[in-house]
Structure formats: structure tokens, C-alpha cells
Amino acid sequence: MRKQLFIYFLFACFVTLSQPVLSQDIQTARTLLDTLTSKTMWGRGYTKNGMSKAADFISASFKAYGLSPMDGKTFKQSFSYAANTFPGKMSVRLNGKALVPGKEFIVMPESKGSNSQGKLVQKDSLTFIQPEQRIILALKDKLTWSVAPEQADYTGIEVLKTVLSGKPTDIEVNIESQFIPEFQAANICGIVKGTSKPDSVLVLSAHYDHLGGMGANVYFPGANDNASGISFLMTLAKYYARHPQAYSIAFICFAGEENGLAGSKYFTEHPLLELSKIKFLTNVDMVGTGETGITVVNASIHPKEFALLQQINSKEKYLVKINPRGKAANSDHYFFTEKGVPAFFIYTQGGISAYHDIYDLPKTLPFTEYKDLFSLFRDFYKGLMQ
């Protein structure tokens, strides 16, 4: 682990010291994206220390950029939550045919482990069960995985409809699961102190966790969700470390978003800065595209700030469209909104359709509007400080 941390630190220093480099350079963002989605990070999740490795990398990068820990001591805000994980065996055979994990089947995230076989009983056109072994088989058009904070008393398998030509009749499963009641995680929190109004804080946030691995050989890279947002946040962190503003600019990388917004909930319950000092928070999640613009959640409850965003974009012609949306509990902004902190959640639209599957890869993420989005954020924060 020490060797890995040293490598991460050297990489962070390289990102900082390489010349010539602009913070908004898309190549910097792509290098960060490739690191965060690498096999070493193992989907930034619950097995093979994937989330922990990502947290170490982001913390080392924040230090190299010149940010200060939000609490003055450490970049990590440690906490824990329950998670069901799949660290080992992951095999399914239907009608004698071995299926490919991730591509042809996924395990339902709440599943218990099982090493069993039996005849399937059809319940409806898409659902089959093996009652003695408590196995559920569901046929799907698309495989979309998730994370569960509990473990059920059954083993659920989702299979692509196109895998078998006939009806599934026989099933064999060998799946290892491990329920962790207190999975150890950490939010990564850094700040650049303001030059004249340090007690006024603007926050940029994003979640760095993803789904991790399903078995010993398959992981979910999570390029758009949300290595794109973390790469974007980190380049802005480096920019503001080099260009301090009148207000303090804070950066929070949340863990546990995929498991019920666990990290942002914990932060709002145990804030490292007074929530009343946050003048505005902008959360980014899945910002790797943008061909058809962006959507802004909470636009309707913060019309003044949304008007500012629209005014900047109209003047500079950054994005083709900014779509307003009302309040929604669909990302890490939500618990801040519930605490009275003014906040937007922004995501891009268009481009790839990969989502919560093994195909959300860095090589297929276009970063279409990365530079324009960077400029829009920089101008928006400048406007908020005026």
C-alpha cells in the first residue's frame, strides 16, 4: 500500500508540475479519468480496496495542488455504512451454458451467496424461480447494476433476453457474497481560502465512488458516472489553488453516493464548515458529454442564480442549451438543499448511453463540452462573488 500511495503521490506531483499545462486542459482531465477508471481502482468500490485507493489518490492530488484540508488536519472525513459485496466466485450456467458475468448476466445487488443448482419454475414471461434454493431469474433488455445496503434471503440473477434461444429450465450458480455492516469510507474535503472574504464559501462537489467489482474478474469503470465529475472537479481545484478568489472555494468528493447518497448525508450531519457560510454549492455528476447541453436541478428554486448562468452562457455561447429542472433527490446536492444550502446539480446530456454497466469506459467518453463547461463554471463562480 505504501508503494501504491507513493506512486499516486508522484502522479499527482507530475500533474501539478508538468509544463506547459492549463488547468482546463482536456488532456489533464483525460489523464485523471484514465487513472480513476483503471483496473487498479477496481471501479472505486467495495472490493480490492478500490474506493480506498481512489480516496488516497484524490487526497494526494489535493495536497500536491496546494489545497488545504477543510478541517485543517486531513483531507479525509471518515465514516461507515452497510454494503453488500461480491468479492469472489461469480458464475452462472443456464441450460448447461456458462454465462459471461457483466456482459450476459449480473447478480442482483442485494443477493446472498449461493452454490446450488436446480430446475426453474416459470412465474411470468420474464421471471423464473428455483424455490428450494431461493433463486430468482429475471430476463432483461439491458443489464444495469447497483449497490445495496442490505443482504436479502435470496439470490437474484438478471440475464439478457438474447442469451438463450429457448426458455431457461436449468440453473447452476456459484456466487460469493459478503455483507459488510460497517464498510469504511471517506469523503475527501479540501479548500482554497478566500483572499478577502474567507468566511464566504462556494462549494464544488462530486462523488468519486462507483459500483466496484462483481466477482473477482469483473469491475465497472464508471467513466461518466462519475470519474468525469471528479476529473472536472480536480482540474478546477488545481486552477483555484493557483488563482485564489475573494471567497473561499471548497471541494468535496463524496463516497457512498451509489449507496443512497451516504457521503453527502454524513457531511451535512457532521459538517466540516458551517453550512450557513456556504453561499452556493454546485454538484456535478456525469458531465462527460454535452452535445445537447446540460440540465440544472434546483433551477426553479434558485431563479436568480439560474438567470446568471443563462446570461453567461448566452453571452459566451458555451453550450447549446441549459435546461432547467425542479427539485430532485437524485444526487449529492439533495441533503444540502434540505439543510437550506442553495445548490445546483448539473449533468450533461447527449453522447454515450452507457450507465451502471461495464461499458462506461474512458475510451468512449467524448468529453465533448469539457472546456466550455470549465469556462462556464469559472464565470459563474466569478459572478456569484460579485
Biggest pleated sheet: 9 strands, mixed
Principal-axes geometry comes out as elongated
Strand content: 25-35%
- Structure annotation, total helices: 8
The counted number of beta strands is 18
The residue-averaged pLDDT reads 94
- How large is the radius of gyration? 22 Å
Topology pattern, helix = H, strand = E? HHHEEEEEEEEEEEEEHEHEEHEHEH
Poorly predicted parts: 12-23
Q: Give the termini distance in whole angstroms.
A: 45 Å
- Category from helices, strands and their pairing: alpha/beta
Helix fraction bin: 25-40%
Tell me about this structure:
Strands 1, 2, 12, 13, 14, 15, 16, 17 and 18 form a nine-stranded mixed beta sheet that branches. The chain is of the alpha/beta class and 386 residues long. The relative contact order is 0.16. 27% of the residues lie in helices and 28% in strands. The protein is elongated. Strand 8 and strand 9 form a beta hairpin. It is built from eight helices and 18 strands. Helix 1 runs parallel beside helix 3 and helix 3 packs parallel to helix 4.
Descriptors for this entry?
386 residues; alpha/beta; nine-stranded mixed sheet; five-stranded mixed sheet; 8 helices; 27% helix; 28% strand
